[in-house]
Every structure is written in C-alpha cells, then in structure tokens.
C-alpha cells in the first residue's frame, strides 16, 4: 500500500545545524534517522479535500529501513522531526513499504517543510 501516513503538521520549523538528524522519526524508544541523501523526491500535491499535502519519497537504499521501522506501530503515534524540529505526530495508518508517505496540515508549514526536505540540509534553506 502506498498511502501510509497522513498527518497534521506543526506550526514552526526552526533550523538546527548542530548535528541533529535531518529527518528523524520515533515512537516509544524506537528511532529512525534519515540523512538528507535519503530523500529522493518531495512534491506538494492536492489531497482528497483539494488541500495542499506533502508527498515524500525516500531513495530505494532507505526504503527497507523505513519499511522495517514502520512495520509495527500501526495505529500508534509516530513523531516526525525535520532538522530537530517536531513537524508532525501522525497515527501511522500502515507500513511504509514503498518508501512514500504524505503529510497534511497548514499550507504554510507544508511549503516550508518542502523547502527543508528539498534542500536536504538544515542550513541555508531557500524560501524558508
């Protein structure tokens, strides 16, 4: 299944360049840290309500790690951080086995998160 996560994004995205993981996911005591190079594509699309949504696809090299991490927590809250800032806490709907997930919420935050993810780095984010 490709539709894996739908979340409401938080309202701020400060920049942290102090060695924190670029994209960090966690639930309970489990963590998955993805470097910027793990992001293959980032797109802003329209969701089923015709609202902006963020589509994130990780590289094939990182898809197995993401699939393993999301194999168990269905229905549980997964915290998603970009550059050390909490941006979403969705309930995971299904395993992210294809390396593709979606986030919904405040359009301004979606666009800012897209800028960070496209930059693949926590410093000097264009359009942030």
Task: Provide structural commentary.
The protein has about 130 residues and is of the alpha+beta class. The strands form two sheets. A four-stranded antiparallel beta sheet has the order 2-1-5-6, with helices on one face. The chain has a three-stranded antiparallel beta sheet with strand order 3-4-7, with helices on one face. The protein has two helices and seven strands. Helices cover about 15% and strands about 30% of the residues. Strand 1 and strand 2 form a beta hairpin. The radius of gyration is 13 Å and the shape is globular.
Can I get a quick summary?
This protein has 128 residues and is α+β, with helices and mostly antiparallel strands. It has two helices and seven strands; from the N terminus they run ββββαβββα.
Helix/strand layout:
Elements: E1 23-27, E2 30-34, E3 39-46, E4 52-58, H1 63-69, E5 79-82, E6 85-88, E7 100-104, H2 107-119
Number of helices: 2
Tell me the series of helices and strands, N- to C-terminal. EEEEHEEEH
**Helix content bin:** 10-25%
- Largest sheet, order of strands side by side? 2-1-5-6
Give the overall form.
globular
Structural class: alpha+beta
The major pleated sheet works out as:
4 strands, antiparallel
Gyration radius (Cα, Å) is 13 Å
Mean pLDDT metric: 80
Give me the count of strands: 7
Strand content: 25-35%
Low-confidence stretches: 1-19
Q: Whole-Å distance between the termini?
A: 32 Å
Protein name: Rhodanese domain-containing protein
Organism: Cypionkella sinensis
Keywords: Signal
Signal peptide: 1-17
């Amino acid at each position: 299944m490709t539709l894996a996560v739908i979340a409401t994004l938080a309202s701020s995205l400060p920049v942290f360049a102090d060695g924190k993981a670029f994209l960090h996911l966690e639930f309970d005591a489990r963590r998955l840290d993805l470097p910027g190079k793990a992001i293959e594509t980032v797109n802003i699309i329209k969701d089923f309500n015709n609202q902006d949504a963020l589509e994130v696809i990780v590289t094939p090299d990182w898809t197995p790690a993401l699939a393993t991490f999301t194999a168990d927590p269905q229905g549980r809250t997964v915290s998603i951080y970009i550059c050390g800032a909490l941006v979403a806490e969705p309930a995971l709907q299904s395993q992210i086995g294809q390396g593709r997930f979606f986030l919904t919420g405040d359009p301004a935050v979606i666009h800012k998160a897209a800028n960070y993810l496209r930059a693949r780095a926590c410093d000097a984010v264009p359009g942030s």
